Amino acid sequence: MPNDYDISVEDGEHATLTDDEVRACCDATLARAGVERPCMVSISFVSEGRIRALNAEWRGQDRPTDVISLECERPDDPALAPGEPCELGDVVLAPTYIERQAGSFGTTVADESRLLLSHGVLHLLGIDHLSDEDAERMEELEEAILSDLPGDGTINRVVLTRHREGDDV
């Protein structure tokens, strides 16, 4: 059973990747992370106002950001029956924010979006960057994921510091 993706775009917004690019990025991320169970993931492209509200509600940060992950289940949850799909969670992206951020990092919007989508899915899997060791592991995974995908070649080395607390553009 393949992974299942619910991709939505908030009224008045636009997606920074095609549906096929979103699916390919999520599939590559799950594969690199060693996930064998089919997963269901919701991916939403929303306004800066909406992501700011989510950031305030879920992270206590009253400001817009690039991506937020809201996890539901983990693929290794022993409560899931063998072969039962895992409802992994939601990845929420802010296209306008991402476009501005891409310009500040010298990446294309598509490359920046692939990085942030993979970053968000890794968070759903419980992979984080709170310690330097965890950040290095996450960075290595992101680099491997991006090397599995066609891209614009504007991200040669993942710079995870853009995702550390307080480093939003």
TrEMBL record:
Q: Coiled-coil regions in this chain?
A: none
Q: Where in the cell is it found?
A: Cytoplasm
The similarity annotation says: Belongs to the endoribonuclease YbeY family.
Function field:
Single strand-specific metallo-endoribonuclease involved in late-stage 70S ribosome quality control and in maturation of the 3' terminus of the 16S rRNA.
Keyword match Transmembrane helix? no
InterPro entries associated with the record:
MetalPrtase_cat_dom_sf_prd, YbeY
Enumerate the GO terms in the molecular function aspect. Answer: metalloendopeptidase activity; RNA endonuclease activity; zinc ion binding
What EC number(s) are associated with this protein in UniProt? 3.1.-.-
Origin species: Candidatus Olsenella pullistercoris
Q: What is this protein called?
A: Endoribonuclease YbeY
Transmembrane stretches in the record are: none
Task: Tell me how the cofactor is bound.
Answer: Binds 1 zinc ion.
Does the UniProt entry include the keyword Zinc?
Answer: yes
Q: Which domain of life is it from?
A: Bacteria
Cite a single Pfam family from the UniProt record: YbeY
Annotated GO biological processes are: rRNA processing
Q: Which Gene3D superfamilies match?
A: Metalloproteases ('zincins'), catalytic domain
